[in-house]
């Protein structure tokens, strides 16, 4: 006896498949399989029904309907409800797979070309592979990574999750890089550790390095939200160094005397403003030298940053 599957193909009738499905429902309800007479009786009755009615073609759906009726009229309607739930979940899973595969097929065959990205030709080989991969990654993100609330809001057009196909791997567009934190604490490039910046020129160079490294990993754009404020501590660091050099070369003092005379307060403090009168009061000529050198270093650092970013 042959049974027609949902896809139209035929397979041999197998009572054991019916028995196994019913037993799963018993285990779900009872926690264990204490008896299997019910499942065997149901399978034998179904087999006999189709033998007695040769004009009725056995189908998977028909057999499952028969199982539901049999269990509902038995002493275990609770098992029938468990079987129905199991059947519903399997059907939902099949529908999901069918819809998903249909969407992938359309992308691979370029049947639904939208060219949403001006840089991607969805008719090309790479474009079709990319769109199919994008569809798969979006499904994974919605079903396994975002919260239920975010998923429902996205599907209901209440919100739009940008770059959803990159969500699973943490790769997003329009990223604002936390330069304050990276420059102050240092960072790791996977090959080496980079120490915190100690001057404005170094800070500008590191910003260029971070932009370049992140742009290689990032799907879309990267940005800095307040790079002028970010540079303030490093402008102060550079000014302090130049001030110390001025005392060394203009006043011909050695480092030990410099550190001792100003007690490191001005040189080592990050939060001491360049415009504080104590700098100039201590030595006006040295102050003017340090300020001029700091401005020069800022100009050179900004120019270097500009040229480095233009190579991206």
Q: Main attributes?
A:
single chain, 312 residues, mainly alpha, 3 domains, two-stranded antiparallel ribbon, two-stranded parallel ribbon, 14 helices, elongated
Give a written overview of the molecule.
There is one protein chain. The protein is mainly alpha-helical. The protein folds into three domains: 2-96, no CATH class; 115-169, no CATH class; 173-312, no CATH class. It has helices spanning 15-30, 37-52, 60-72, 77-108, 125-145, 148-155, 179-185, 200-217, 227-230, 232-249, 255-262, 265-268, 277-282, 284-310, and strands at 2-4, 10-12, 175-176, 187-188, 193-194, 222-223. A two-stranded antiparallel sheet has the order 1-2. α1 packs antiparallel against α2, α1 (15-30) packs across α4 (77-108) and α4 packs antiparallel against α5. The longest helix has 32 residues, at 77-108. The radius of gyration is 36 Å and the shape is elongated. It starts with a strand and ends with a helix.
Strand order of the largest sheet: 1-2
> How many DSSP E strands?
6
**In terms of per-residue confidence, which ranges show pLDDT below 50 for 5 or more consecutive residues?**
none
Mean of pLDDT = 83
* Shape type: elongated
What is the helix content?
A: 55-70%
Distance between the termini: 68 Å
Q: SSE string, helix = H, strand = E?
A: EEHHHHHHEHEEHEHHHHHH
Q: Determine the number of helices (DSSP H or I, runs of at least 4 residues).
A: 14
Strand content: under 5%
Helix/strand/pairing category: mainly alpha
Number of domains: 3
Main beta-sheet annotation: 2 strands, antiparallel
Radius of gyration: 36 Å
């Amino acid at each position: 006896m042959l049974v027609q599957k949902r896809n139209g193909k035929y397979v041999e009738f197998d009572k054991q498949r019916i028995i196994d499905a019913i037993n799963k429902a018993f285990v779900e309800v009872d926690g264990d399989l204490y008896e299997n007479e019910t499942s065997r009786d149901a399978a034998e009755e179904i087999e006999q029904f189709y033998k007695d009615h040769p004009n009725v073609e056995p189908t998977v759906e028909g057999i499952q309907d028969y199982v539901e009726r049999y269990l509902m009229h038995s002493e275990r309607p609770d098992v029938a409800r468990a079987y129905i739930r199991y059947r519903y979940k399997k059907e939902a899973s099949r529908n999901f797979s069918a819809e998903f595969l249909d969407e992938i097929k359309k992308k691979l065959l370029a049947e639904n070309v939208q060219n949403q990205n001006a840089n991607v030709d969805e008719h090309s080989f790479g474009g079709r592979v990319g769109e199919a991969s994008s569809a798969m990654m979006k499904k994974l993100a919605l079903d396994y990574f975002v919260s239920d609330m975010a998923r429902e809001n996205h599907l209901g057009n209440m919100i739009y999750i940008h770059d959803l196909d990159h969500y699973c791997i943490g790769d997003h567009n329009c990223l604002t890089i936390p330069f304050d934190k990276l420059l102050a604490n240092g960072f790791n490039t996977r090959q080496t550790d980079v120490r915190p910046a100690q001057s404005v020129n170094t800070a500008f160079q590191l910003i260029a390095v971070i932009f370049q490294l992140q742009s290689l990993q990032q799907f879309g754009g990267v940005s800095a939200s307040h790079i002028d404020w970010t540079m303030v501590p490093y402008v102060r660091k550079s000014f302090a160094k130049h001030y110390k050099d001025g005392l060394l070369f203009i006043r011909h003092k050695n480092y030990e005397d410099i550190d001792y005379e100003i007690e490191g307060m001005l040189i080592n403090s990050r939060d001491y403003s360049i415009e504080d009168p104590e700098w100039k009061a201590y030595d006006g000529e040295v102050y003017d030298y340090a300020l001029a050198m700091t401005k020069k270093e800022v100009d050179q650092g900004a120019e270097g940053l500009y040229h480095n970013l233009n190579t991206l």
